[in-house]
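Morning F.,

Quick status update on the modeling queue. The single chain you submitted on Monday has been processed. Sequence for confirmation:
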Amino acid sequence: MGELAWDSLSAETLRRLEHASGRLASGTIGEMEDRLPWFRRLPADQRASVLMVTQTGVAGFVSWLRDNKQAIRLTAEAFRSAPKDMSRWVSLRQTVELVRVALEVFERMLPEIAADEKERGQLTEAVLRYGREIAFAAATSYAAAAEARGAWDARLEALIVDGIVRGDAEESLLSRASALGWEQTAEATVLVGNPMSAEPTRVVFDVRSRAARIHRPVLLSVQGSRLVVVLGGSEDEARGQEVLAKMAEAFGPGPVVVGPTVDNIAEAHRSASDALSGLRAVVGWPTAPRPVRSLDLLPERALAGDPEAEWQLIERIARPLEEATGGLMATVDAFLETGGVLEACARNLFVHPNTVRYRLKRVTELTGRNANDPRDALVLRVALTVGRLAKARGLW
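Structure tokens below.
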């Protein structure tokens, strides 16, 4: 800023300005209360904070008129002295409204203080220039607050996702997630895979932009070479696969494993545990789809030593077939042993081929697995093997 035109203000005018600073500040607050309904609704302590900033600004204006080279320092000080959480309850748009009202009050009251017409013009110009400095200081202050909040939110988000992966106590998890605006009752699904980039900011942008396009809340964390994403919302069969496919595009090359959808974020550790188990085992299924559900990786997970996968195979397949009537277990065994040849299976069982067809249909209805499908046949075989081994050890 170059030399200014008001350096010739008389000492008497500057003294009158100092004496009138309290009247200027209180007049400004009164005008704000009259013209801004949202300001009237603020609690008393918050209005007092605004008054403090206004008083500091008025004092800074008078000091600036004495030495205009201090402009930036003095105007920044007005916002630096405000409570640290002020930007949370007064938005930048509302701050601009406050500054506008203050400038109008200054323009109306300052001419009374000037000694003559020349000084009135100088004071009017000074108010406009100082108002510009205040606007820049406000924008800088809010930008710094937003940046600090963003950094804190990113750290908190990483803590939440890390807690989900570790299976932390649900109380602390819920409170942290609530601080980020996550709906406690929202369903949650965990996806894991490789990050798209080595730059965390780019990864965050890619994941968030894709989640925004499908209108889903999301939490994420890059843990070394692994990206963990917690996706909010229901994953019904019809829409779910499309949503998951779009989110998988935010991951880098390699498999993307999807854990089961759970009722709320407090149970998200179950989804994360299954997804991570699937990520370790997916190498055993080179042609697995992308994304692939952890439930579809039960055979590989069981072979890799995951007890949860073994239990699910038993509960979903082995036990229902064991407890079913009509020779379903024997039919599945015979069908798999004959390599899926229907007639050979029927001969071994001494039944009609239509009986085998009927029994296999019942197996599909009971377990969700079709013995005629190569992948489902593998799942059935591993499930029956795991079930027999567990039974031999007396586990069920």
